[in-house]
Every structure is written in C-alpha cells, then in structure tokens.
Amino acid sequence: MSNFDERSGVAACTTAWGRWYQTMEEVFIEVNLEEGTSGRQVKVNITPKRLQVLVKGETIIEGELASSVKSDDSVWTIEDKKFLRICLCKVMTTADQCWKSLLKGQYETDPGTYDEMEKKLTLQRYQYETETAFGGAD
Predict the structure, then answer these.
(1) How confident is the model over 34-56, as pLDDT tens digits?
(2) What is the side-by-side order of every strand in the sheet holding 42-46?
(3) Are 4 and 23 in contact (CB under 8 A)?
(4) Of 88 and 97, more confident
(5) Which DSSP helix (H) or strand (E) runs through 58?
(6) 65 C-beta neighbours (distance < 10 Å), count
C-alpha cells in the first residue's frame, strides 16, 4: 500500500508550520524550514504518546499525541535543507482510527477535512481488503 497516497491524494490539515495527514498505518507531518536548515539544527523526540520538534532551539511542535505510535518504527528526515518530514507509525491501524487532531487539543482538523480523512481511510481499507482477497495489487 506504499503507493496509496499517490493514487488517491491526501486530505491534509494545514497549520502555521506546515501540514499533517494520515493513512490507516501512519501519520505524516511536513514542517516547512528556513532554507539551508541542517540536521544538526533540528531535534525530533518521538515517544509512544508525545512528540516534540525543535528547530534552531525553537519549539515548533510539542505535546501529547492524539493516539499512541510505535516510536521505534517512526522516522524523520530533512529534504532539500528546507523541509522536515516525520512519519509516525500508528499502534491502532484500522480505518476507524482516524485522528481528529495531531496532538490532544492542538492542530485539530476542520469538519470538512476530517470527513475527507475518514473517506480516505475507508477507501484504503477497502483497497487493502480487495487486494488481499484477490491475491495482490495491480
């Protein structure tokens, strides 16, 4: 299902620092950085229940996650020295586990975006079940 997003698009929640979106298995966070930002200037702390992102000593994101993640399987990378991408692996990986917000009380989706997120997760679940039932992807 790695190419699910390329085929169906994403329903993202836009924030002051960038955007976040999700699939059944993962939550993706995209943070816009000042051009030329290096990996040494970024600190990302991921625990099963909390996320902290610091850039050049300034807190960008900090708080309790909406649901638990597998911190050992979650990763982050800097792209083109101007973009931070974080991939959080959800513990609960079913279509009914759509996050309404990235952090508890912070970065909540509007009702229209949330509805789109739920539709994407339902579509992804259907695609997965269909591929599993018929022995694989195209």
Answers:
(1) 999 999 999 999 999 999 999 99
(2) 42-46, 50-55, 58-64
(3) yes
(4) 88
(5) strand 58-64
(6) 21
As a whole number of angstroms, the distance between CA 16 and CA 107 comes to 9
Query: Which residues face 45 on adjacent strands?
Result: 52
Tally of CA atoms within 13 A in the half-sphere of 54 that contains its CB: 7
Token couple for 130: 């269909």
Q: Which residue has the tokens 């994403």?
A: 10
d(CA 62, CA 134): 43
Q: What is the pTM of this model?
A: 0.86
User: Exposed (0-12), middle (13-18) or buried (19+): which is 28, by Cβ within 10 Å?
Assistant: middle
- Partnered with residue 47 across adjacent β-strands are none
Does residue 7 have a pLDDT over 90?
Answer: no
Alpha carbon distance 100, 13 (integer Å)? 10
As given in the structure block, the two tokens for residue 64 are 């309790």
How do residues 91-114 score in pLDDT, each as one tens digit?
998 778 899 999 999 999 999 999
